[in-house]
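Handoff note, outgoing to incoming analyst
You'll be picking up this chain. Sequence as last confirmed:
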Amino acid sequence: MISMIERRKLEIFVGIGTLGFGLLTLMPAVQMGTQAYDALIRAMPEWQWGLLFASVGSAHLMAVAVNGRRWWTPLARALMCVITAMLYAAFAAGFWSTNPHTTAVYTYAMHSIGAGWCFYFAVCDAAQTWGARNVRA
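Most recent structure output, in case you need it:
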């Protein structure tokens, strides 16, 4: 049997990355002080972005950790993947609006796509779980 860590490498990577990004943004130093972050700072202050990313990353890792203990746990993972993808897409769009040629657009868009793949895997797990649950019923 394949271990949970082996099957969820990408999802764990995305969750740790999101949590780490949030914790770094919550540090007392100004992380989002350059002009490139203007569109994002207009939407929310830096500390709120940090809190949001850290909260989503923590919740995502918890959803991965409890996965399989109940029938609904793949749905929790899928929800966290959608939220994570939207957060990274917001950052990609914010940088795009300031300077579409920056590497940040590509980097955050790739993180969003990675979270999208995690969503796909979580939905596949949910379908498999529900199929097995309905067969037993």
